[in-house]
Amino acid sequence: MNSHLRSPARRRRARGMTLIEVLCAILVMTVGLLGLVSLMARASQATSATEDSQRAAVLANEIATEMWLAGTITLPPATVTAWQTRVANAADQGLPSGTGTITSVNQVARITITWTPPSGTARQYFTDVRLNN
């Protein structure tokens, strides 16, 4: 059958997409975009948690270095207090709701840093320091 003999109604129906097809395409794209936004939000949370863990390791290393420089695991109270203040100050390379403690048992100092990120689950990092003189 020749194309010029087709009825105008049939030619109109064959052109373009129907409204239902367009709505389905929009729905599929919307679901895909929402999934992408969700994935980006989770990646951002994971990045923040990793940064906090790295910051805790750096803060513990700072006080361990002070111990090494002093040649003892027993530091002056002023040094420990200044370090604890730095751990608690999230605005100055500290941690959110951060606390730092140092306990000594049998010439081994345990440095413990605890913080609570915005997600609300408390996190903890600790390291042990032993100086052999």
Overview of the structural elements:
This protein is of the alpha+beta class and 133 residues long. The protein has one domain (3-130). It has three helices and three strands, in the order H-H-H-E-E-E. The chain has helices at residues 8-14, 19-70, 77-88, and strands spanning 99-105, 108-115, 123-130. A three-stranded antiparallel beta sheet has the order 1-2-3. Helix 2 runs antiparallel to helix 3. It starts with 7 loop residues before the first helix and ends with a strand.
SSE succession = HHHEEE
Shape: rod-shaped
Radius of gyration: 31 Å
Measured distance between first and last alpha carbons: 100 Å
Question: Number of folding domains?
Answer: 1
Strand adjacency order, main sheet: 1-2-3
What share of the residues does DSSP label as strand, in percent?
A: 15-25%
Q: Unreliable stretches, pLDDT < 50, 5 or more residues?
A: none
